[in-house]
């Protein structure tokens, strides 16, 4: 039986709160499109390039902003 991998960006939203940032601030600082922000809000997959831009902007690592679990 094949298991599905589920991604969640809850950690990202907590980091934004901790840094006093809004989603719009992240979008502008990391040069993210509206479509990418929608994908993040819906816990959909995004490219590793995008993950890298977010991490560079927030000075963190991928596992600081996302979790991957079996669903």
Helix content: 40-55%
Content-based structural category:
mainly alpha
Uncertain spans: none
Beta-strand portion reads: 5-15%
End-to-end CA span: 12 Å
Strand order of the largest sheet: 1-2
**Shape annotation:** globular
| Alpha-carbon Rg, integer | 12 Å
Biggest sheet statistics? 2 strands, antiparallel
The average pLDDT is: 95
Count of individual beta strands: 2
Number of helices: 5
Following the backbone from N to C, one meets helices and strands in this order, namely EHHHHHE
Draw up the topology in text:
Blueprint: E1 5-8, H1 10-18, H2 23-29, H3 34-41, H4 48-58, H5 62-65, E2 67-70
Antiparallel strand pairs: 1-2
Structure keywords:
two-stranded antiparallel sheet; 5 helices; 2 strands
Notes on the structure:
With 71 residues, this protein is mostly helical. The chain is 55% helix and 11% strand. A two-stranded antiparallel sheet has the order 1-2. The model has no long low-confidence stretch (mean pLDDT 95).
